[in-house]
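General statements about sequence and structure are easier to judge against a single worked case. For one protein, we set the task of working out the structure tokens from the amino acid sequence alone. The sequence in question and its structure tokens are set out directly beneath this paragraph.
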Amino acid sequence: MYRQALRHSSAVPEDRPDLPDNERLEFLGDAVLDAIVGDLLFGHYPDKGEGFLTRMRSKLVSRQQLNTLALKIEIERVMESNVERGQETSVPGNALEAVIGALFLDKGFERTRKAVVKLIVGQFELKELEKEDRDNKSRLLEWGQKNRRKVEFRVSEEQRRVGRGKVYHAEVLVDEKVRGLGHGNSKKKAEQEAADAAYRSLRSRGGRGRPRGGRRPKSKDERPSPVSGTEQPRSRRSSSGPAER
């Protein structure tokens, strides 16, 4: 089961379609990790509200953080994968989630909880995560995860027509519909500009009932609230992959 957790789909030979990859275990590990981190934060911050806890959880279980954590423990040394190393992929983080899923099936929730908490506390400083600046990209991702809306960033690049270098074009999709566009001389700037546009769009639509192209929110809590930032998006998989979870 642990070997399965460490086997990416790219490593399954064509003549062995019966050999299971780690996607099912990743699905399970994702849910278990959410529960463990939620429990950790709930106990660690007894006086904080739901918005703060949601943001902190999104920081801990984002795709970027999971990849960072997976690389710190050198999970790639024991993975079975044919994805080229050095590429920006979510493979290491996905494998870590799959291992958590396998551990849960093998040892149960309590043993898994202790192992994951020890790993997180040993690698991340919660006080430092609290201080991290939040921007509209983070808000959108958190909002999407909290309200089960698919938020995806897509970036393309092209050579400048005049001079050297590249220009990046980004778009933000919410439930498969474009909500914001951005341009810049870096991927980050383009994404931030697109996120700003999407956030303004969602704000303007939020007060008029059903956003165009979307479902009617069940409550006010489902709409991004740009003022206080207390009922904001949660970031798990930024859908640059899936949400670069």
